[in-house]
Design goal:
The complex is a heterodimer of chains A (about 40) and B (about 475). Chain A is built from 2 helices and no strands. By secondary structure, chain A is mainly α. Chain A has one domain. Chain A starts with a helix and ends with a helix. Chain B is α/β, with parallel strands linked by helices. Chain B has a domain of about 220 residues: FAD/NAD(P)-binding domain, CATH 3.50.50.100. In chain B, strand 16 and strand 17 form a beta hairpin. In chain B, helix 1 runs parallel beside helix 8. The longest helix of chain B has 20 residues. The radius of gyration of chain B is 22 Å and the shape is globular. The chains are: A mainly alpha (about 40), B alpha/beta (about 475). The interface between A and B is medium-sized, with 25 and 35 residues.
Chain lengths: ~40, ~475
């Protein structure tokens, strides 16, 4: 795997990262939900 | 009125104390014994270690939190456990007063004994630094500042970060520390003068003692080895893995690798995570005899309801070998959580060199895993007191974990690698893919959003752990 220039731009783009921040929160909640069910 | 004693106020012990105090504090006797009178938010010590966070922002006093929940705090060190007679002996800090704490339920959640003695020359009394305690992180920060001054004078410096024992764990902390140093030096325009080396006992980069992580990325399966490898390559780190540090002197770290070859890595500044062991309590039976074999293994970790002694292939194919309620099988009123409980074996495949040296990354049981175990133990003790039976269980093979590895703390141009895995211990029976994990939940990504997540989690966890409003809805 190589980190391309385009990847770097995405990683630092504030709008894209705001969207990813929301996605990450939802993913963590999903992971926690899986845990709490057991 | 039931008496519950909790030894240790780290993630597992403190979380257990919060739930127990909340449910039972008014009617029952909950006591926490802790060496410090404050809680330490360990995940942020990587920032303390480079001077980007004040040490006091990573701690808070326990007494005001425990007063709210009717929990007693003994600021001191537990020294003896009398399991047959159901009491603990502790020595108070400062006055050295010896106290006897009787219990109906005992939770051992001490965190690790940092075994610097396991590697000659390792640790603050030797030649290396650590970020495993707050004092160590502060000492690392001061030494790092000296290195920065040398770099500013134009001197080349070699910084080695990693693990300091063939059986060490907590590679994530080492990864975070080296990437934060990288980012800090880059911002100061000094990165080109420093050689950054990652030295680890892992089988592969990104193994982290959990057999690596595999997740979907751009319609392909991406391994943590590739993911971390790309980060290391991009940051121009020298990677030295499959190496167990055996000795350190003032100039070099001496290691043995997977092939059994011996070699050395020189350094100017080094932070190496030591081996973790269980706390060395004195276990006393009914007639004063040593009954430690009923409670702890030889490394000092507390034996619980896991299946111990399985060879690695059997353990890897039997996720039910991992404990579910963290209860000692000989003494049903003793529970252990966090690093204190004895895992049934490694998650990552262990390796023995031709010389007989075991080089194996031990299973991580920190942070989220510790918090979840603390909650499960607390809920079960509440169940036992109120209903007479336990209703909660959560094996690490049923548990999700999120690891947000900081790679620069700035909220403007920082970054973090966010890794989520479910379950922590692969389970190929429930997830019949090559990796034994749910590929819908398991996830890896890197970017500024991770830096925001890391900071948000620092704030929300400290809020939760201070039992402030809404603390119960914030997950561990």
């Amino acid at each position: 795997m190589n980190i391309t220039k385009s990847d770097w731009k995405m990683m630092n783009n504030k709008f894209v990262q705001f969207f990813r921040f929301i996605v990450l929160n939802l993913k963590i909640l999903k992971a926690v939900d899986r845990s709490k069910r057991s | 009125m039931a008496k519950v004693v909790i030894i240790g106020a780290g993630f597992a012990g403190h979380t257990a104390a919060l739930y127990l105090g909340d449910a039972l504090g008014k009617d029952h006797d909950i006591t926490v014994v802790n060496r410090q009178d404050y809680f330490s938010y360990i995940p942020s010590w990587v920032w303390v270690g480079i001077g980007h966070m004040a040490p006091e922002k990573t701690i808070f006093q326990l007494e005001p939190v425990y007063s709210k929940l009717n929990i007693n705090l003994v600021h001191g060190k537990a020294t003896e456990i009398h399991a047959d007679d159901e009491f603990v002996i502790a020595e108070k800090d400062g006055s050295k007063e010896i106290v006897k704490l009787e219990y109906d339920y005992l939770v051992i959640a001490t965190g690790p004994k940092l075994n610097f003695d396991g590697t000659k020359g390792l640790g603050p009394s030797g030649y290396t630094h650590s970020i495993c305690t707050l004092d160590h992180a502060i000492a690392s920060r001061d030494r790092y500042f000296e290195v920065v001054e040398r770099l500013k004078k134009g001197e080349k410096q070699k910084i080695v970060i990693g693990t300091g024992h063939p059986g060490a764990t907590c590679q994530g902390a080492a990864f975070e520390y080296i990437t934060n140093i990288h980012k800090d030096l880059e911002k100061q325009g000094l990165r080109d003068k420093a050689d950054l080396v990652y030295l680890s006992n892992e089988r592969a980069v990104g193994d982290f003692g959990v057999r690596g992580v595999h997740a979907k990325y751009k319609n392909e399966i991406l391994s943590s080895e590739d993911f971390m490898g790309a980060i290391f390559k991009n940051n121009n780190f020298t990677v030295e893995i499959q190496k167990g540090a055996k000795e350190v002197n003032e100039k070099s770290i001496y290691w043995e690798n997977f092939e059994g070859e011996h070699g050395e890595t020189s350094y100017d500044f080094t932070m190496l995570v030591p081996q973790f062991l269980g706390q060395p309590f004195k276990y006393v039976g009914k007639d004063g005899e040593d009954n430690s074999e009923k409670i702890a293994n030889k490394a000092g970790f507390i034996l619980v309801d896991g299946i111990y002694g399985l060879p690695y292939p059997s353990l890897a194919s039997n996720p039910d070998a991992w404990p579910g309620v963290y209860q000692n099988t000989n003494y049903k009123n003793i529970f252990a959580g966090g690093i204190a409980f004895a895992p049934p074996g490694p998650i990552s495949e262990p390796h023995t060199t031709p010389n007989g040296t075991s080089i194996s990354a031990a299973p991580p049981r920190t942070g989220m895993v510790s918090g979840v175990i603390g909650r499960v133990i607390a809920k079960n003790i509440i169940d036992l007191i109120k209903k007479g039976r336990m209703t909660h269980h959560e094996r690490m093979s049923h548990m999700a974990a999120a690891c947000i590895a900081s790679m620069g703390d700035s909220l403007w141009d920082g970054s973090a690698a966010t890794i989520m895995m479910y379950p922590v211990v692969p389970d190929q029976r429930r997830f019949p893919n090559e990796h034994g994990r749910d590929l819908f939940v398991t996830h890896m990504e890197m970017g500024l959003a991770g830096a925001w997540m890391k900071r948000m989690i620092h704030t929300t966890f400290i809020h939760k752990l201070q039992a402030r409003i809404g603390w119960k809805i914030i997950p561990e």
